[in-house]
Each structure stands twice: as structure tokens, then as C-alpha cells.
Amino acid sequence: MGMFDAINISASGLTAQSFRMDVVAQNIANATTTRTADGTPYQRRTTVLAEGRSIRFSDVLAERRGQSTAGSGVRVVDTPADQSDFKLQYDPNHPDANEEGYVQMPNVDIVREYVDMISASRSYEANLTVVNASKKMAAKALEIGR
């Protein structure tokens, strides 16, 4: 494992968690959107993360030989729509209300979104801590050589 591998892995984590926070923010912003371009309420989005794949020849060769390689970080694979049911809210004066006076509301639960935001934020902070610790270790290693 090279000196910059830990920083590169953490940087991929920073990027993924930042993207995750953007998706959560989009969900919160659209929590009351009852009509999108396709005429349905907004559907909550989730973020699917997967192990990053190394593209370095030496890592691919070592993997093919069955040897252990350093992690490659994380990447965003998909942002699928949550398929849970829409919420029904009684509001007969709403322009999107049906004959009974119910409006289909997005399947966004604000509490769940806040929990996801806190989780992504903490993961982001942890990755940032690793980057800073790696920088400090590299600086100390350079001081030893003086």
C-alpha cells in the first residue's frame, strides 16, 4: 500500500458521502411535491454504494493470482426510487385531490431523511479525519528523513 492509497480511498468516501447528502437534501426539498413531470408525486431516492474497482494493472494482476490487494474505496452505483407506497393526506381543497378529497403525498419520511443525513455527515467526517491523519503521518515521515 502506497503513501497516497489511504488518501485516495478516503477521498472516494468523501465523494460518495457528499453525493449521498445531496440525494437526502433532494428528498427533503421535494417532501411536499405532489406532482412531478410524469404527473405522480415525488418518489424518495436512495443511494447504493459499492466497492470501488481498481484500474491499476498491478492490482488487477494480483487479484487474478488470488493475492490480497489494498481496498479501492467506494463508488456510487445507483440512486433508485423507493418503491414504498405514497402517503394519503386528506385535503379536499388541494388541486391534486381525488374524488374523496385525498392527495397522494411523496413517500418521504423527514425523520428518516434526517437520520440518513446525520449518518452521511458522520461518515464524511470520519473520512476527512483519515485524510488529515494520513497527511500528518506523511509530514512526520518526511521530518524523520532530515
Strands, count: 4
Low-confidence residue ranges: none
So how many helices? 3
Strand content: 5-15%
Question: What's the gyration radius in Å?
Answer: 22 Å
Outline:
The chain is of the alpha+beta class.
Q: What do these coordinates show?
A:
- The chain is an alpha+beta fold and 146 residues long.
- The radius of gyration is 22 Å and the shape is elongated.
- The model has no long low-confidence stretch (mean pLDDT 89).
- The protein contains 3 helices and 4 strands.
- The chain has helices at residues 5-29, 57-64, 110-144, and strands at residues 48-51, 74-78, 87-90, 102-105.
- The chain has a domain at 5-31 and 46-80 and 112-144.
- A two-stranded antiparallel sheet has the order 1-2. A two-stranded antiparallel ribbon has the order 3-4.
Features:
single chain; 146 residues; alpha+beta; two-stranded antiparallel sheet; 3 helices; 4 strands; elongated
Task: Describe the protein's topology.
Layout: H1 5-29, E1 48-51, H2 57-64, E2 74-78, E3 87-90, E4 102-105, H3 110-144
Antiparallel strand pairs: 1-2, 3-4
Helix pairs in contact: 1-3
